[in-house]
């Protein structure tokens, strides 16, 4: 049995805005969400990259204490986008608890903020701390904290998939959620990812010499996907959630259909844990298309992973070209907001859906002069008013985990 | 600390930390306020701070049967007495 899977709700917290109109405004007006890296008392002083994709606005959370008590910052993000997406989709409480709805949601680490407090406690010599770990500290910090705070808040009793594959986390969540519904195991899935502000993540990339360091005085000019002056990635924070639903059910209840997931490809490079592989990436693109049963020339738009590292962008451009030639427009959305880590796949999917709805293709921000080694594909260098009927969203993670999601515009 | 002082401190903890204001001393906290085992363990951490001393595993396990504010105050009184 293979059922159709549609998207009936979406919500995101991103460095370029929270509500749909704010995000679209940022795309249309070329506004960046990259700001100076906030100071913390641990690592910010040592980090060379002083920029961060920042959620720089307050969020009016309204969570009762019984939910808040097991939530670290990452789960606040996750529960907020889940709540907004569920409300947008209009899913009834009875259905959410029926066992036919599940959650596929993850984050890179769980909550590093809470983990630091736990370790501080362990290593502290202070005589006033008696209990070693607070009862709920583990629940707030554990790797699957986002997924299960969502199940708790909404009484969801179906399957839980808590992917934790760094940059591929939320694209895997969408892909596995899609497969779960497609093959009949669930009728709806809350899918997405979240990552909180955290300097340990920045330090990891900084130590690998992968972070942007040339634009510390002008944060909005970085990252620069595919650009000649690109100098590395910018870590960011954020969250996104989409509600995937079986098509007939969504149609019968008159749900607003934002788009359709028609394919998912996922593979591994089987080798280096850091550098993307041109063959691995090209293959995952093909897998996504094959799974969708479409030809490359049917894809109008590619949301590239494009983190703006020297080598990564070249490898991706070559892989895109090897499958698509120069037909589809390609945008590196991270130019606007940096790399939002676990949430990048779902945020980039949601932005693609917004562009599909509005009939626009946003350009890659900060792409002023295309690196000739990336020039063989069709880069979106200005705002276009063009329809996107089919799009592909690509993401690749440390460990060589690659994903490709194929999306179709809602009819 | 006197019993009254202990009671005042406990009520303050319930207000500040658990957002439970003016509970009756004999209310079943689980039934009325959904006070669960996670909250109980958090409360024990605060009681340790109040006592200025750690609680043993056994002492903590004894506390897990408690259901009301009155019983909490009794418990803290007992623990404080053991330590004076």
Account of the 3D structure:
The complex is a heterodimer of chains A (411) and B (84). By secondary structure, chain A is an alpha/beta fold. Chain A has a single domain (5-409), classed as Thiolase/Chalcone synthase (Peroxisomal Thiolase, Chain A, domain 1). Chain A is 34% helix and 18% strand. An eleven-stranded mixed sheet of chain A has the order 5-4-6-7-1-8-13-12-9-10-11, with helices on both faces. In chain A, strands 2-3 form a two-stranded antiparallel sheet. In chain A, β12 (390-397) and β13 form a beta hairpin. The longest helix of chain A is centred in the first third of the chain and has 17 residues, at 73-89. Chain B is globular and about 35 Å long. By secondary structure, chain B is an all-alpha fold. Classes of the chains: A alpha/beta (411), B mainly alpha (84). Chain A binds chain B through residues 65-66, 69-70, 128, 130-131, 134-136, 139, and chain B through 18-19, 34, 37-39, 41-42, 44-45, 48-49, 53-55.
Give the helix/strand layout.
The complex is a heterodimer of chains A (411) and B (84).
Chain A: E1 5-13, H1 20-28, E2 34-36, E3 51-53, H2 65-68, H3 73-89, H4 93-96, E4 101-106, H5 112-123, H6 137-141, H7 145-154, E5 160-161, H8 169-182, E6 188-195, H9 199-207, E7 238-246, H10 247-252, E8 259-268, H11 278-292, E9 301-303, H12 310-324, E10 329-331, H13 334-337, H14 344-358, E11 378-379, E12 390-397, E13 401-409
Parallel strand pairs in A: 4-5, 4-6, 9-10, 9-12, 10-11
Antiparallel strand pairs in A: 1-7, 1-8, 2-3, 6-7, 8-13, 12-13
Helix pairs in contact in A: 3-7, 8-14, 11-12
Chain B: H1 3-16, H2 29-33, H3 37-51, H4 57-63, H5 69-83
Helix pairs in contact in B: 1-5
